[in-house]
Every structure is written in C-alpha cells, then in structure tokens.
From TrEMBL:
Any matching Pfam family: UPF0758_N
Domain annotation MPN: ranges: 88-210
KW Transmembrane helix (keyword) present: no
InterPro entries assigned to the protein according to its UniProt record, in alphabetical order: MPN, RadC_JAB, UPF0758, UPF0758_CS, UPF0758_N
Record's protein name: MPN domain-containing protein
GO molecular function terms attached to this record: metal ion binding; metallopeptidase activity
Keyword Zinc included in the entry's annotation: yes
UniProt cross-references to PROSITE patterns, sorted A to Z: MPN, UPF0758
Organism: mine drainage metagenome
Any single biological process term in GO: proteolysis
Keyword terms of this UniProt record: Hydrolase, Metal-binding, Metalloprotease, Protease, Zinc
CDD domains: MPN_DUF2466 (cd08071)
Length: 210
C-alpha cells in the first residue's frame, strides 16, 4: 500500500474493504471469491445490491462487509459523476459519458433531465421518474417547471434501457417531440435525448430524430 492504491490488484483493494477474513480464508481469499462470483467483472460488481451480495452465500462476507463494499463502489460512481459535472457539454459524447456514470447501473428504467445554461454548463441533473424494467413515464409539465426553477435555457432528456438495447421506442420519440414543442413556449431548447445502456449510448440529435 506504501506504493499507492494503484499498485494493488482488484482483490487486494477489495480485501481492504472486507478488512478481515475467516478461520479458513484471508480477506484476500474472500475478495477473490467475490470477484469470481461476478466473473471478475467490476461492472457487474457495481450493480449488485447488498441483498445480492448476501445471496452469493460467500462464507465470511456478511451484511456489514457487503455494505462497506457497496458504499465504496457508490462513492466511485459519485466521484465520476462529480468530475464530469464540472465540464461544459460540447457534444453528445460528453453528456453520454456523464449520464452513463449515473444510469448504466440502474436495474429499472429511469428518466432524467440535465438542465443547462447558455454556456452549456450543467446547472442541475434530476431523476424525473422511475419505472419498471421496460418503461417509465415522464410528465412534460414537471420537466418544464423544473427547467424554469433552475433558469435553464436548454435541457437534455435521458433514460436508460436496462435490457441493453439502444433502439428508441415509438413512445420515446413521441414524448421527445411533445416536450420539445412545449419547451418552445418558454424559449427552452431540447438539445438532445440520450438513451444509455451497458452497450453504449444513442443520441437522438446525432441520429437526426430529435
């Protein structure tokens, strides 16, 4: 550890969070068991809830240790989000990277809006609605009310597809058009609608369907 956290393996970093092992296994052994349970995929690990950690039934990995790991991974997600939030949005890639850090680990569909000022800097980002695995509904009136509250001159709509598909539905397109047209009355521009998933992202603006 004297050489810095970057010099440690994934299992060694997890072992620090686990803190201590069992009679038969060290903390590093438990960390290796946990990583093996998610195919050594940190993305899968970040998606697990505390309950799902416990369902893995790894002896020595109880609720307290599971909470510590989940909390540390959540801090990592929030750090990524905080760093990206400082940036000015210049392209769909910029906002997609920011949104993926927020949404790609959600197991149900979430509709969010990013509120921007005239310089395209993020003023606020908020979850508007949460739904099931396949759909969520967003109210244009709520979105525009919040845009006015934050003095936003532009907004970016976004939602995730837990299924992994990036193809927009007819409902996605209709809702986008409805919000875009309503926003015009308040001189607010809908600059994009981003769909994010584990597979990447899709920009309505880039695809010419905004």
């Amino acid at each position: 550890m004297l050489k810095g956290a970057a010099s440690l393996s994934n299992s060694e970093l997890l072992a620090i969070l686990i803190n201590n092992g069992t009679k038969d296994k060290t903390a590093v052994d438990l960390a290796k068991d946990l990583l093996a349970a998610v195919d050594n995929d940190l993305q899968k690990l970040r998606k697990l809830s505390v309950r799902e950690y416990l369902q893995l039934k790894i002896k020595g990995l109880g609720e307290a240790k599971s909470i510590s790991i989940a909390a540390a991974l959540e801090l990592g997600i929030r750090r990524d989000s905080s760093e990206k939030k400082k940036n000015i949005i210049l392209s769909s890639k910029d906002i997609a990277e920011y949104l993926r850090s927020q949404l790609q680990y959600k197991k149900h569909e979430v509709f969010t809006v990013v509120f921007l000022n005239r310089a395209n800097k993020i003023l606020h980002h908020e979850i508007i609605s949460e739904g099931g695995i396949t759909a969520t509904i967003a109210d244009p009136r709520i979105i525009l009310k919040k845009a006015l509250e934050h003095n936003a001159t532009a907004i970016i709509l976004s939602h995730n597809h837990p299924s992994g598909s990036l193809k927009p539905s007819k409902q996605d397109e209709d809702l986008t058009y409805k919000i875009k047209e309503a926003a015009k009355y308040f001189d607010i521009v809908v600059t994009d609608h981003i769909i994010v998933s584990d597979e990447g992202y899709l920009s309505f603006a880039d695809e010419g369907i905004l």
